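pasting for ref
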Amino acid sequence: MRRIFGEWRPDQPAHLNNGLVIADGCVPIANGYAPLPSFTPATAGQLGSPCLGAAAYRTADETYIFAADATNIYRYSATGFSSLIGGLTSSAAAGVRFCPYNRLMLATNGHDGIKRFDPASPGSFAALDASAPTARFLAVVRGFVVAGYASNDSLRLAWSDSGDPAEWEAGAGEAGFYLMPGGGDITGVVGGEYGLVFQENRILRMTYTADDAVWQFDEIATDVGCIAPWSLASYGRLSFFLSNKGLMACDGVSVQAIGSEKIDRTFLALMDRSYLEKISAVVDPRNSLYFIAVPSADPPNRVYIYNYALERWTSAPLPTRRMFPALGEDATLEQIDAIFGDIDQIGGSLDSAMFRGGYPLMMLFDGGNRLGALTGPNVAASFVDGYVEPFPGQVCRIRSVRPLTDSPDPTVAIAVEDGPADVPTERVFATRSQGGFHRLRQSGNLIQIKLSMPAGSAWTYAQGYDVEIAAGGRA
């Protein structure tokens, strides 16, 4: 009998589940699952305190990577971090947000005035303008900079004049503001040709009108909004976020539940609302993946991974304080050696995206406040199938299992039950015979098969398994 791994659906009962009850340390691909690389730290990229925000952009053929803690904003280079501004008052709840505008990089923390970085004067961040409000969220919509939670008002949305991010006085050009009539606190703003304004219980689309009103606000969703600002991550027309009803995606027109009857109940059961500000999320566009950390510890130590092209989930152990979309920083062999101490001890390849300037990749700060990327050896992976009953009402005798994977060292475990209410009996089989078979003798009415790969195993795919079984007597 051949079993092809289905999608991970931990919200469903393990019995008669056509999908997986565990898919850990891996990512979904079109014909199975692929490994997840481990975290590779750059030791010269360690902050002295937790990262509250990070970003990257590229202008004039140079890549800039920024990170912020409670008091400073830093720029990262191959030799470490250098402070560009100090004396800030940033909180873990609001964090520090970055927003590129033309050649500038803007930064805001909801308390201090909006700052700007100009590569023409790369030594520091400076105040944007006295007319600019404080803001927790920034986005560029058409030629406007849009600020959410402006002037410390949770319902206030403000925008600069078109083409001038330093002009915010209402009535000057097209600059202005809007007070939300309801929907709860503003929890995020997404830019582009049109804007999306996320509130706790509502999502609005803002469309440029070119008249005195400047913007038209249309409701996309009522009673569905973003409850955790740092869960919001966007790429192209897709925005992913955590709502009170579970994990959602918005394409600017409608809202889709992406975790319903799959992982929502499991995620929400693990989630500790007192840690919502610790949540972190990012989109990896190269692999069509949305990563979101489960807010259940400080730092969170587990992420859920959604392949939005395939609409399938997995999970992985990954302690992270902040994930963010980044661009690789150019580095010579000498600089790489200076960062890692010993060039032979690098977990990833020297051809890694981490060392190529301008190459898009996901980066993160781990629980030790170290900057790095997922470029190391594969993490440990495990797949647990649902319980199946090959011969209803009869005992089955299991003689062998052959994993459908190119892993050189997989382990098979089998759990058997006589009935759904029984305590399962599990045995592990690590030895393989020629042809990739795990020979064994097990019997039971219901069977569940687990496939595991150790950390560092050089595998590229896992698709399922072949199991040799024969019918026995009545259960």
